[in-house]
Specification:
Helix content is 64%, strand content 5%. It has 239 residues and is mainly alpha-helical. It has a 4-stranded parallel sheet. Helix 3 packs across helix 6 (96-128).
């Protein structure tokens, strides 16, 4: 089983002597790779397809969730009596009925989201189960001796070619996962519940997907803002 090297917190009193030992040890290691399991799983074709299928299968629930989210936004506007785009505690206290409606809408959204999240986690778990095999195949083919998580690389000297010394294995692992798990089942068996590890990986993948969506939206807004304004068509002049 491959070991993930975690950052060590070294007490300042022994840092000077320990640092020399650590530096020497790393200098003797070759074929170092870096990979993010969550990012690799999130970018598989099977998971992308599964999410699309889930959106179709649960369209009614997703549409209702969107409608209730719009209701919450409208209720918040009702609470914002001074129009400062913020809802203070005083504004909430002054209109308890609207606050109750927001809580009711939020509770309904939570209930509607449960089967959708379960389907997503069930799909993801099938891919996650094959991750160790995919990683081991890459390790064997590329003769990797050490694998680091991306967050473990805190600093690299300018004299070190990181791309050469540390191989990014993410695309290799994704390719292996795509071959091992070309598709997944999104129909959750009755009574199935995700374990803690599945829930933790799912939360990280959801954060990655949300961050990617925000970057895409920001890029689209920037492109739209920088696009030259269309000039009105000139009318032909009569003679």
């Amino acid at each position: 089983m491959n070991k993930f090297i975690k950052p060590l917190i070294i007490a300042s009193a022994i840092f000077a002597s320990s640092n020399a030992i650590i530096t020497k040890a790393y200098a003797q290691i070759s074929n170092i790779g870096v990979v993010s399991p969550e990012l690799s799983i999130a970018n598989t074709k099977a998971l992308s397809t599964a999410y699309q299928q889930i959106e179709v299968q649960y369209k009614v629930q997703l549409d209702e969730i969107a409608g209730r989210e719009t209701n919450i936004q409208n209720f918040r506007k009702q609470l914002d009596t001074n129009n400062d785009n913020q809802v203070s505690q005083a504004e909430q206290d002054a209109n308890a009925a609207v606050v109750a409606q927001i809580r009711a809408e939020s509770s309904a959204i939570d209930q509607l989201s449960v089967p959708i999240a379960l389907a997503q986690m069930f799909a993801m778990q099938q891919i996650s189960a094959q991750y160790p095999t995919a990683q081991q195949q890459v390790v064997t083919e590329k003769q990797i001796n050490v694998i680091l998580a991306p967050q473990s690389i805190l600093y690299s000297s300018p004299s070190i070619d990181v791309d050469k010394e540390i191989q990014n294995l993410s695309q290799d692992v994704i390719a292996k996962l795509d071959a091992l798990v070309p598709f997944v089942n999104i129909n959750v068996p009755q009574g199935w519940q995700p374990d803690r590890n599945t829930q933790a990986v799912y939360q990280q993948i959801q954060q990655l997907r949300l961050a990617a969506a925000r970057r895409q939206a920001a890029a689209q807004q920037q492109a739209a803002a920088s696009a030259p304004a269309q000039q009105p068509a000139q009318q032909p002049t009569g003679r």
